[in-house]
Design goal:
It is a single chain. By secondary structure, this protein is mainly α. The protein is built from six helices and two strands, in the order αβααβααα. It has a two-stranded antiparallel sheet. α2 packs antiparallel against α3. The longest helix has 16 residues. The radius of gyration is 16 Å and the shape is globular. The chain starts with a helix and ends with a helix. The model has no long low-confidence stretch (mean pLDDT 87).
């Protein structure tokens, strides 16, 4: 869970949207729609045996920062890059996942920080 340390150092301890206290705010992945889309499509291609297309999509997922799709657990690891993380309280996190509100709420976040791997190591990642 090193990504949580890095995110808290970059974005603070309180909810980035409402400012709620650090005791309840936690680090969350905010690229959930892209992640879900990759994972869903990888599952479908693997289930249908379309391995050439599966491997092409896997390459695209890797280039987007995700890990290798696990064909046993049928899961795609999340992208822990700081640009995909936010510190949110439970209420704001729930709202981010609402179909109608999610995109608008994500646009309310301050700009994400795209930092180098060296900086991540310095921050404790």
């Amino acid at each position: 869970m090193r990504y949580t340390t890095v995110a808290r150092k970059l974005y603070g301890e309180k909810c980035e949207l409402c400012g709620w206290g650090k005791a309840t705010a936690d680090v969350h992945h905010i690229d959930y729609q892209e992640h879900w889309s990759f994972e869903r499509d990888l599952r479908k291609l693997h289930d249908e045996g379309k391995m050439d297309e599966f491997h092409e999509l896997q390459k695209m997922a890797l280039m987007s920062g995700y890990g290798m799709y696990n064909t046993v657990t049928r899961q795609l690891p999340k992208n822990d890059n700081p640009i995909n993380l936010a510190v949110l309280c439970p209420n704001c996190h729930r709202e981010v996942h609402h179909f109608d509100l999610g995109i608008r709420i994500l646009k309310s976040l301050p700009p994400r920080k795209n930092v180098s791997q060296q900086t991540i190591k310095l921050l404790g990642g």
